[in-house]
Amino acid sequence: MLLLQPRELIEFLHVIEKLKCNTRHSWTSSGRQESVAEHSWRLAVMALLVAGEFPEVDNKKLVTMCLIHDFGEALTGDVPSFAKTKADEKKEEIAISKILEALPEHLALEFGALFHEMAELHTEEAKLFKALDNLEAILSHNEAFLDTWLPLEYSENLIYGTDAVAHSVYLRLLREELKRDSIEKIGCTHRPD
Q1: Could you give the CA distance from residue 30 to residue 190 in angstroms, rounded to a whole number?
Q2: N or C terminus of the chain with fewer C-beta within 10 Å?
């Protein structure tokens, strides 16, 4: 018996296709808004590239977290972290549950456990996922034109993710490099008040 029937796969892929359509607050270096799917893809690539720095981490689990973490946004759309409320978080939790219901039980349970693990932030994989997720957002902002930044992002880009990287020397070094890039970018123009 097949673990995932072809029709189930197709129907599920139709749902998460919205991640390619739904845009994020971030912009690309070409001047268009980034899709949620593009963020998740680059986050997964980041996880693959830093795997050697974290030999204790289950990289398959980490990459899976990166790829699925925004599934709920297929139904809710993206809400930037600085604007997200408890109500938004609850709406996204409900959307994730709905999306997981469309999967066969074994996948729904596996992904549900990963969502729980990401929310709890107790495992090395969850902590690394969260740090990389924050760092990818900073990287995206640094690549975008400054006229796409909100005034609060001039300070936010300098501090965002600091707590998430505290557990790792490598991640702190990466965060510092991104901060230097932000400072250089901001220094190239007048900062709005």
Answers
A1: 22
A2: N
